[in-house]
Amino acid sequence: MPFHFTEENLKKIEEAKKKYPTSLAAVMDACYIGQEQNGYISEEVMEEISRVLDVPKTDVLGVVTFYTMYHQKPMGKYHIQVCTNVSCMLRGGYEIFDTIKSKLGIDNMEVTEDGKFSIEEVECMGACGGAPMIAINNEYFENMTKEKVLEILESLK
To answer: pTM for the whole thing?
Structure first.
């Protein structure tokens, strides 16, 4: 099924383009907008971004595949990202990741059967001083413990 931006989102993209010297620089903004509208960035979304910005689709694909905040398949209502980079790893990042996987019964980049949760192991999220950390959608949680994670998951049910 073809994807087309809503008029409102086309206006957002036009505003984003004004911030940059070239349309190519607005790819990240357009990806956010496309993912928000569609739920994830499909081939059709990338084609539409390419068309709207008049940039090669390969440039859009390069952005989508490089950054972890863009998803190429549907994720859960609550998408949980767990940092396992050095600071987080040393302070229990993998234990937190394993706790969430066990509690939800899913593995990396999987979605629970009810579509409510998904989990992703990610590299540095820029909060080394508050390690270990997780993000749920766009909300960040630092200094996590297994107990705190379980409390958060319970509050989302």
So the answer is: 0.81
